[in-house]
Structure prediction request, 488 residues.
Amino acid sequence: MKYSLVVFVGFLLWSCGSDKKARMAPAEQWRPAYHFTPPAGWMNDPNGLVYFDGEYHLFYQHYPDSTVWGPMHWGHAVSQDLLHWEHLPIALYPDSLGYIFSGSAVVDWKNTSGLGTEAMPAMVAIYTYHDMAAERRGDIKVESQGLAYSIDRGRTWLKYNGNPVLANPGSRDFRDPKVAWQDSYQQWVMTLAVHDHVEFYRSKDLLHWEKLSEFGKDLGSHGGVWECPDLFALKDEQGSTHWVLFVSINPGGPQGGSATQYFVGDFDGARFTSQDTVTRWIDHGADNYAGVTWSDIPSSDGRRLFLGWMSNWQYANVVPTKNWRSANTIPRSVSLVTRGATHELKFEPVKEIDSMLTEPRACIKSTETETDAYVLTLGSAGALVLSNEQNQKTVVTWNDHDLTVDRTQSGETSFSNVFAAVHKTDLSGITVKDVRIFVDAASLEIFVNGGERVMTELVFPSSPYRRIDVTGNESNYSIQSLRSSTPR
Ligand code: FRU
Prediction:
């Protein structure tokens, strides 16, 4: 089954005037045009992001039998461009050791595990087993790490018969292994979330793991449990290497509930040290959680590519979509920005999206579109109102001090008593040059200065926002729509 861009993108019906043209058949309400969603059922965290043989793989926390969280499987899809996804059969089912919680996947190029060959390296998934029977008994040792592998480009998966590969040492929260090969240290490193800190483990063969160190008990945000870490090296603008550590926490995010913090620092093969004690967030909106980066992106590409789950545990199980729940963010490219003596991260939408967009059309103040998905590029300060026929609206305001999203009247909000809120992030220290807003059927992703500050927010308008009003000194902006769908 192919996942293709939905319906309406076929014709460039909108313009900056008010040309009303034939509307197309309605799509499933709130099914996004260019964000990944499961075909049906429940989805949470992206898992096992790995590139192999021309394909980006996306696995995800999935419960196919319901639209609420339940026994976790790994759903699976592949893409050649990060935006058009082909759904594949479920890769991993729960078994006698437990539900299949979050984790990562790597290509074992040197066949260190012996599970493949050098000619056909195994794709290896390392994930958390969550033993529900043990949880019900009140046991502490509920979570352990398991391994599965594929020697046919991820099409079929075998569980390793020596599972678990990392048993629980006595921690109730012991999960979400992110594994990477570190060439400079000739070792595999597993970064694991353990309640209120991260633990690093080392292996030569992916099958035997030895603990290296811990990080974070007294650093970062501790408003909730630590989950879904990621550790990787990134070069700054001058070409110096730094190490980046992501840690999702729930609750305790800047807008309440779930969010992902990050640290920039150093990793010496055994220990991570942070550049400072500041808590930084990869996204200041309410709806970007459990995001991690792709493994095995070819060095000829060289990007560090990120994908997040576009929801928040505060209401993920009750958002009003019908046949499925949850979408992912736009895939984003991560880079380092030097700010004085420290470094921060920048997240910009992958460039692949550009070929899906029409040429920018200049607009002033108000316009009506006839598409549900579009990208707005705006100036350094302003106020934007996106609204629909029911007079539901989301208001975005920004200047050099702050960026605010008001979704109190955004549409359907009654499913949760925290959803209808005003979310604000401080922009002091950032000279705003431009703001780009990616609008899809149920989301806004706001990128300040190409991603120096990001806010991702869900909205559920009863009908799409087709009216755009921009006020303030700078009421000039441009709109791009999606080009016609090109399923492949
Ligand atoms: C994060 C998380 C992970 C866990 C998974 C279970 O959203 O709680 O820590 O592995 O979801 O579905």
Q: What stands out?
A: Residues 44-45, 61, 72, 101-102, 128, 175-176, 227-228, 290 surround beta-D-fructofuranose (CB under 6 Å). The chain has two domains: 40-329, 361-481. The chain is about 0% helix and 45% strand. Residues 1-15, 17-23 have pLDDT under 50 and may be disordered.
